[in-house]
Amino acid sequence: MEAILKVEKLSKCYGKLLGKTQALNELSFQVMPGEFLGIMGSSGSGKSTLLNCIATVIAPSSGKIMMAGKEVTALKGKELSNYRGQEIGYLFQNFELLDNLTGRENIMLPLSLHGISSKESAEKLLQLANYLDVADVLEKFPAQMSGGEKQRVAAARALILNPGIILADEPTGALDSYNAKILMEKLTGMNQREKATILMVTHDSGVASYCSRILFIQDGAIFHEVRRDYPAETQPQFYQRIIKVIARLGGGDVNVF
Q1: Where do the structural domains in the chain lie, given as residue ranges?
Q2: How many CA atoms lie within 13 A of 148 on its CB side?
Q3: Which entry of 52, 159, 168, 180 is 20 to 30 Å from 190 by CA?
Q4: Is 62 helix (H, G, I), strand (E, B) or coil?
Q5: Does domain 5-250 have CATH number 1.10.10.10?
Q6: What sign results for the dihedral spanned by CA atoms 41, 43, 44, 50?
């Protein structure tokens, strides 16, 4: 099976000369179709910079990003617009819903931006709204929704165009533990049932335990990797292993296994 996303020797530097900061340092990895990959690391380790490079929010200093065989860093014009709008879905920490649009309008916004008839996705909207438990807030504005409802509406918006990959940047960061658990169960369900590919940045070990594989980043490079042993390893067991890795990484011992 061919990887859907390939990151090859990706580097990103901010500033110049003595003030230069190396956010990413020749980082390489692959994401397979249907994988739920987590990215963990301390603040400033390069996690968000990595997602922003993949999303083409910022340009890397060097290296390549390949999505479904296309070099993302070389895309321009309509191809770049299509990539941003249809090949990736972005789930933000702070929802990024438009306050003057209803839940339905927020979810359907990507369709209108890319000239796709809403009729074509009416069934998809209904499926997502029912699965994500937001059918009863479709006619409400964000100010009338709870934090959990806002994030699930945002998840529906990210999924409405069936993107090749979902980029989730600390998706539970603004949620309480109850709503964070609901969101992660929904995302896991989409990953397992619909084979949605998810690349998620998180600092939360409990959230990370929903993933199938985790890359630990330090100083812009991959320091360690753990894979969940399916079906033998339960989520609580995987969580405990994540905690042990984090503790040993913090102590400078990266040779965990």
Answers
A1: 5-250
A2: 14
A3: 52
A4: strand
A5: no
A6: positive
